[in-house]
Amino acid sequence: MEKSIRVLRVGQRYVRDDRTLTHLCLVSRALGAESIYLEDAEKDVVGTLEEVNRTWGGEFKAVLGLSWKKVIQEAKKEGRKVVHLTMYGVPIQEAVGELRKEGKLLLVVGGPKVPGKVYHEADYNVSVTSQPHSEIAALAIVLHEIQSGEELKRAFQKSRLRILPSARGKRVVEN
Amino acid sequence: MEKSIRVLRVGQRYVRDDRTLTHLCLVSRALGAESIYLEDAEKDVVGTLEEVNRTWGGEFKAVLGLSWKKVIQEAKKEGRKVVHLTMYGVPIQEAVGELRKEGKLLLVVGGPKVPGKVYHEADYNVSVTSQPHSEIAALAIVLHEIQSGEELKRAFQKSRLRILPSARGKRVVEN
């Protein structure tokens, strides 16, 4: 089943962390999500994403200007299941069977401070181990599990460059 | 099969990026690696890791003071397979069958600039998609795939705190 997966990042950060944000966006794109919802203040990353699309293909989008409450509300209205990633949640390996049956998902990725309300608004709170690590890694594993690894085989349309996988060295061709 | 997996980060960075380094360490620990090799200049993260071990258990270690060449050389001497993660490599889903048979592995994670020699010294160059994204996400997926998801079920010994996974909210107990 072709899935529609979107990502939302929630949580006030005390220090701007552009690198983590960029990683979250690029992981969402590379591993099969169609868009990510960002806060207005994070619009710097939009240019980076457009450049990545131009070079490497696909139509991944950053969506700006909506509050997290609005995004979750709209998702629910259209029958999109809301999955919040948190180390306190139910193990992904236990929830994934149900999640694989869903066609439309919103993955909510927390920063250091996630409002308590997110835990209650979410249809699922899932964890990738109950150990502290990285929201980037957690997002990657959840995207990978929900899509049963199929996302790794996906081709990106209309790219300028394309890598030919190789056992040694770097092979890149222009399309 | 219980595996011995170690991680090495290679590649000069022009800007120090402590956040990415911390994520790489914590992901290595949470997803079943036993240690990570760091450059001497990165020793600030050692205190963080000791604190995480004390609170959340386990014996994950940061090893300082060895050049990447030395680490790879020593790994090969003890029959440890060297797996370099790069977007130019062979898809992980094609290499994973062989990698699962190995008991001892060294995963090499590149920063922005990886010396060409690493591609040649590695036993495997593997990619997690041929798209640009995040070394943190790539490391997570490779650890997850090599261990067939078993790493998610692992318990960390001697922790001070432990999370009780729950569908809503946060439940933490003291051991």
Structure explained in plain terms:
- The structure is a homodimer of 175-residue chains.
- In chain A, 35% of the residues lie in helices and 25% in strands.
- Chain A is of the alpha/beta class.
- The first copy, chain A, has six helices and eight strands; from the N terminus they run E-H-E-H-E-H-E-H-E-H-E-H-E-E.
- In chain A, the strands form two sheets. Chain A has a six-stranded parallel sheet. A two-stranded antiparallel sheet of chain A has the order 7-8.
- In chain A, helix 1 runs parallel beside helix 6 (135-146).
- Chains A and B meet through helix 1, strand 4, helix 5, strand 6 and helix 6 of A and helix 1, strand 4, helix 5, strand 6 and helix 6 of B.
Task: Give me some keywords for this one.
alpha/beta, homodimer, 8 strands, 175 residues, 6 helices, 6-stranded parallel β-sheet
List the helices and strands and how they pair.
2 copies of one chain form a homodimer.
Chain A: E1 4-10, H1 18-30, E2 35-38, H2 44-56, E3 61-64, H3 68-77, E4 81-91, H4 92-99, E5 104-110, H5 116-121, E6 124-127, H6 135-146, E7 161-163, E8 172-174
Parallel strand pairs in A: 1-2, 1-5, 2-3, 4-5, 4-6
Antiparallel strand pairs in A: 7-8
Helix pairs in contact in A: 1-6
Strand content of chain A: 15-25%
What's the overall average pLDDT of chain A, rounded?
94
The profile of the biggest β sheet of chain A is: 6 strands, parallel
Judging from the principal axes of the Cα atoms, what is the shape of chain A? globular
Count of distinct strands of chain A: 8
Structural class computed from helices and strand pairing of chain A: alpha/beta
Q: Helix amount of chain A, in percent? A: 25-40%
Please, what is the oligomeric state? homodimer
State the separation between the terminal residues of chain A, measured CA to CA: 29 Å
Low-confidence stretches of chain A: none
Q: Find the biggest chain interface.
A: A-B, 54 and 55 residues
Lateral strand order in the biggest sheet of chain A: 3-2-1-5-4-6
The total of helices of chain A stands at 6
The radius of gyration computed from the alpha-carbon positions of chain A, rounded to a whole number of angstroms, is 16 Å
Give the topology string of chain A: H per helix, E per strand: EHEHEHEHEHEHEE
